[in-house]
Amino acid sequence: MLQRLIIKNYAIIDHLEVDFSGNLNVITGETGAGKSILLGALSMILGERADPGVLFDKTGKCVIEGFFKVKKSQVASFFERHELDLEEQLIIRREISASGKSRAFVNDTPVNISQLSELAACLVDLHQQFDTLELGNSDFQREVIDALVNKPAILQQYNNVYQQYLQVQKKYKQLVDDRDQANKELDYNKFLLDELLEADFSPNEVEDLDNELQLLTHAEEIKNSLNRVYFQLKEDEQPLLQQLKQLQSSLQNIAAFHKDMPAVAERMLSAYLELQDIAGDVERINDQVQYDAQRIELVNDRMALGYRLFKKHGVQTTDELLAIKDALSVKVDSVLNLDEQLASLEREQAQLHELLLKDAAVITEARQEQSAPFELKVNALLAQVGMPNARLKVDIVQGELNPYGQDTIEFLFDANKSNQFAPVGKVASGGELSRLMLCIKSLVAQSVALPTLIFDEIDTGISGEAARQVGVILKDLARAHQIICITHQPQIAGKADAHYFVYKDAKAEKVTTSVRLLSMEERIDKIAQMLSGERPTAAALENAREMVR
């Protein structure tokens, strides 16, 4: 519950502190005194957007603080999700600077506005004058019935399966699109793959063939050069190797006469041995090099095929061509496997659909069980608040599966016992919607733990006995919930556990809004003024005492 609200430098509020009771808190005051400004300030710590134009003093900053007493179970998931420290008392602070910069804090830890709004939904239900429009919203109507059903586990279970179902549907549709597109390309891809398979190139083959062709086309020139080298090394009239051998022997003979000669003779021997090896390699290479016209033609044809495929596929090397072949193979194989994957997804869809129908039937049955008692209770409360001829009917129609089951829920309304029911948002007046919303929220509050309920002029369009009955409902609702209600009706003010009076005060030539908690005698006086005017009569004072009692 909201224990304390501190407002500094907001609109026409300079500094204000209000301590609320845990039951029915009523706020009254003259029109324009600033009652709704209190809710405007409160909305700032509930995640509303900030406007620097609300600053009372443009040279300072606006600070709004709310002190809440919370059950840890009520907000535990939020604090765990956002890794915040959870304490028994929760302090929310909002700061707005003159430049328009806004900051928010939860227990002195900075949070963003979306996080603040998420937390606020766990703490406060703010019903303002135009929130009755929500009654015509199908999501709100479904949420009301589901709150009365009060089986969140099965709804969550259904929603989890439904999300899986959507994912499988999405995957199936994407796979169908992929298959259709792939089928369009399949014949062409198979043609390209078959062409590459028939070519059957090995890694680096085209590059190796290019080297081989260079050898084959220059075979005669190569052999002539090799023969000449071999001949001069070993078979000439004075072969070079023989001359080196003789020179080496001459050096060896004089090696003993000079200290450097043995090394020179050794080097000459090394040169001789190296050239002897070269002669052997020249002979071996010469034997290997053969001019082969048929092989040249074969290599040319193979290379022509390779370069044609290079150009066709926009590549430069054999390995790149082989990579394309592998990719085409994967594409063709995947198309052939798509039908099997689609069949598997169809089976999964069918299983999930069957499970959804089963859970949806349980949800529908639970909603139908609650709808009749809900109608009776709402209609009884409508009579209590001055609408004896009004009737509400819950229309539940089964349709397509959706995230919340397979039901379309609509509240139908008949204001005059005409048995001509129509959607509530189209036929109910503003005053009727306001009282209907109060009746619905009071019933929902009995089933689930609603946060603090705030009503801004819920009594619009009513007076007399109807207003008194609204006060009775609020009083009853306040036994288990904190209620904060702005009202102009003395019948409602008389039911308050704490009565706050909002008034304007002139300070330092500035008009500011102030709030004070009324004593018993002050309450009686203010309620009497609400009944008969600025100077209440003795009868009005007595009537006020009766209302307070």
UniProtKB/TrEMBL annotation:
Q: Domain of life here?
A: Bacteria
* Family note: Belongs to the RecN family.
Q: What does the protein in this record do?
A: May be involved in recombinational repair of damaged DNA.
**Mind listing the GO biological process terms from this record?**
DNA recombination; DNA repair; SOS response
Q: What is this protein called?
A: DNA repair protein RecN
Identify the residues that the record assigns to the RecF/RecN/SMC N-terminal domain, covering every copy.
1-507
Any single Gene Ontology cellular-component annotation: bacterial nucleoid
Q: Which gene encodes it?
A: recN
Gene Ontology MF: a single term: ATP binding
Q: Which PANTHER family match?
A: DNA REPAIR PROTEIN RECN
